[in-house]
Design a protein that fits this description.
single chain, 426 residues, alpha/beta, six-stranded parallel β-sheet, binds uridine-5'-diphosphate
């Protein structure tokens, strides 16, 4: 049995937006420290997960990375489609705990630490049972963490005063460290490398034929959906902008902006009757409609992409920054509005779409205007140069001696120390 190396267990809660960063963290722990890493995946939709290449361990991780899919959990009894996706995630994770406990108890090479994401904190109890170190991985920004940790104790005004500045976020982190006694290890950006997959080849072939930085990529993350009226306005806005676009299309849902969060990608919906009459034909020369899911990292890294109309999920945001792509911020739910303010007002990496009235659909004229601002006007060029700085900062953070590298080393040292203490029986 291996005793000199640390073994880290990670728990990913349901949803691609949760799974993707946990897997990236796992790969970093393997490549950075040669740790053994096991990722436990809680999923509500095993069928479509099996279709993704995400769960295949990358060849260069050897036998150091294991990915274990926990058994399917039935949550149909908690109320059906009207139940919020958050309630579904929380219940699924909770009901997966006996399986996680059983998996960990069977392990001969017991993990030194358990890392859970935001929805996995119930599992920290299992870490205590097995004398494992505990970490919570927040795959978002420090501002979000600050709000999560501080809201019950200090009022909102104080949060704004203390944490609204960052680059990406040194002031937020400093304020957090001073306010809270929890050690914080800022890591990232954790962005998937471009993976060659058969899936998405048509999109890349189409992009190859477009001029440099001429295409707007439109996607609302793994779950985002729009109302029928909003889908129509977006279609009109794209058409009126007269710019090229790749649009990841989902059928509309009313009153549920996270409509497909738990139904994973790679599906397709052939009916396009929710689009304005004649839209696909009128825009076929300069627009590509992609049903349900696109290979986003590959798309964003393509030289033809000139902008990203995004819901501001944190993974999408980081993927845009590391690829130097200016954003149009169109937040839908959860912490996305906070991310959009940070990107637009603080960092200067995006412009934001605005509805004339809150809760109204964003109109076609506004959409036409922001798309042109990003792709055609000077504003897009200014944002691009700001993003270039952020991109360089991100590369420095990840390089040896950078802030992310150092945080990862600190965590690794804590794990190694814990292992030695356990081995010596003290
Ligand atoms: N994603 C993708 N193709 C799509 C939609 C999303 O590959 O068509 C990936 C995207 O690259 C990102 C993740 O799914 O890594 C979405 O995470 P994010 O935090 O942006 O948003 P969430 O889905 O959690 O709202």
């Amino acid at each position: 049995m291996e005793t000199t190396k640390s073994h880290i267990a990670l728990l990913a809660s349901p949803g691609m937006g949760h799974l993707i960063p946990v897997l990236e963290l796992a790969k970093h722990l393997v490549s950075h420290q040669s740790f053994k890493v096991t990722v436990f995946v809680v999923a509500t939709d095993h069928a479509s997960l099996a279709n993704t290449h995400l769960l295949q361990s990358p060849a260069d991780s050897g036998d150091l990375l294991d990915i274990v899919l926990l058994p399917f959990i039935d949550v149909s009894d908690i109320g059906g489609p009207s139940v919020s996706f958050i309630a579904t995630i929380v219940t699924t994770v909770l009901r997966s705990m006996p399986f996680l406990r059983s998996e960990i108890s069977k392990m001969e090479f017991r993990p030194t630490a358990l890392v859970v994401d935001l929805f996995g904190t119930d599992a920290l109890e299992i870490a205590d049972e097995y004398n494992m170190l505990k970490f919570v991985f927040i795959a978002s920004n420090a501002w979000f963490l600050a709000v999560m940790l501080c809201t019950p104790e200090i009022d909102r005004k104080e949060i704004d005063e203390h944490v609204k500045n960052h680059e990406l976020e040194p002031t937020t982190l400093k304020a957090l460290r001073e306010t809270k006694k929890v050690p914080i290890y800022p890591i990232g950006p954790l962005v998937r490398p471009i993976e060659k997959s058969v899936f998405g080849n048509e999109i890349l072939a189409w992009l190859n034929k477009q001029p440099k930085q001429s295409v707007i990529y439109v996607s609302f993350g793994s779950g985002g959906t729009l109302s029928a009226q909003q889908v129509k306005e977006l279609a009109w806005g794209l058409e009126l902008s007269q710019q090229r676009f790749v649009w990841v299309l989902r059928p509309p849902t009313e009153n549920d902006a996270a409509g497909t969060f738990l139904a994973l990608g790679n599906g397709s919906d052939a009916t396009l009757d929710y689009l304005p009459d004649g839209f696909p034909a009128r825009t076929q020369d300069r627009g590509l409609l992609v049903p349900m899911w696109a290979p986003q990292v590959e798309v964003l890294s393509h030289p033809s992409i000139g902008g990203f109309l995004t819901h501001c999920g944190w993974n999408s945001t980081m993927e845009s920054i590391v690829n130097g792509v200016p954003m149009i911020a169109w937040p839908l739910y959860a912490e996305q509005k906070m991310n959009a303010s940070m990107l637009t007002e603080d960092i200067g990496a995006s412009i934001r779409v605005m509805a004339v009235e809150s809760d109204a659909a964003v109109g076609r004229e506004e959409i036409r205007s922001v798309v042109r601002k990003i792709l055609v006007d000077r504003q897009g060029r200014n944002i691009r140069s700001r993003i270039k700085e952020l991109k360089d900062n991100a590369a420095n953070a990840l390089a040896k001696g950078g802030s992310s590298y150092n945080s990862m080393s600190q965590v690794a040292n804590i794990c190694i120390q814990h292992l030695k203490t356990k081995a010596s029986g003290s």
